Amino acid sequence: MHPTHPNPAKQAAFMAPPAASVGNTVHANLAQPGLAPSVQAHGGGTAVPCSSRAGGGPAQPPQGVAPYQPPSPALRAVFAARAAQVPLTRQDLPPALLESVPHCWAAAQAASQPVTELHVAAWLKKLGPLVTNPPGPATAAAQCRAIYEVCADIPCGAWGHAARLAWVRQPPRQGYPVGARWPSPNELRTHLQPFANAIAQDVAGCKALMALHPLQEH
């Protein structure tokens, strides 16, 4: 089988600025400048939403969104121990580890916020150059909208650089180069679900540790 090379015409949909207007809704090619710094910090690059919301302007990302920094392996090991019903008190844990819990809690709470169309468009724009068949100008907006509708329950923290790299690094399946191709909405939701699950587990782990009480002395 001969290797498949990227199609420059299709990749242009995620790298060029033109947009088409249909009725009162503007569909963009996910590559217009002018994003808020919070979106650029999220790792999305420059992009615009798949569509404008009815009765208002484009969807705006949550303020202060940044790439999710997961807890340390040591803290996640404690989360796993608590989930396994291992009895722990605050005295069982190093002070530095306990001091990191509030920061982890705040980061996990922020990462649990709903994703916006703007974040999805930004994430997809960076995926475009990494695959061989990104949507062309005529279908880019529809593809983005479909992915947003199916994956809207995946929190914003799951849409990061690690998830994008994990997609393109997938090995071929039965000869099909999965990681080199554009995902269907369901494929992408399945791919992102473990990242969402990890964030939910971090939230639960932090909550459990913050509820620990010191061991009472008798």
Commentary on this structure:
Helix 4 (95-111) packs antiparallel against helix 8 (185-210) and helix 6 runs parallel beside helix 8. With 218 residues, the protein is mostly helical. It starts with 7 loop residues before the first helix and ends in an 8-residue tail after the last helix. It has helices spanning 8-11, 37-41, 73-83, 95-111, 117-127, 140-151, 161-168, 185-210, and strands at 20-22, 25-27.
Order of helical and strand elements: HEEHHHHHHH
Give the termini separation: 74 Å
Radius of gyration: 21 Å
**Main sheet record:** 2 strands, antiparallel
The general outline is: elongated
**Total strand count, please?**
2
Strand line-up of the largest beta sheet:
1-2
Helical residues, percent: 40-55%
Structure annotation, total helices: 8
Let me know the average pLDDT: 77
Give the strand content. Answer: under 5%
Structural class: mainly alpha
Please render the helix and strand layout as text.
Layout: H1 8-11, E1 20-22, E2 25-27, H2 37-41, H3 73-83, H4 95-111, H5 117-127, H6 140-151, H7 161-168, H8 185-210
Antiparallel strand pairs: 1-2
Helix pairs in contact: 3-8, 4-8, 5-6, 6-8
Summarize the structure.
This protein is an all-alpha fold and 218 residues long. It has helices spanning 8-11, 37-41, 73-83, 95-111, 117-127, 140-151, 161-168, 185-210, and strands at residues 20-22, 25-27. 43% of the residues lie in helices and 3% in strands.
Relevant terms:
two-stranded antiparallel sheet; elongated; 218 residues; mainly alpha; 8 helices
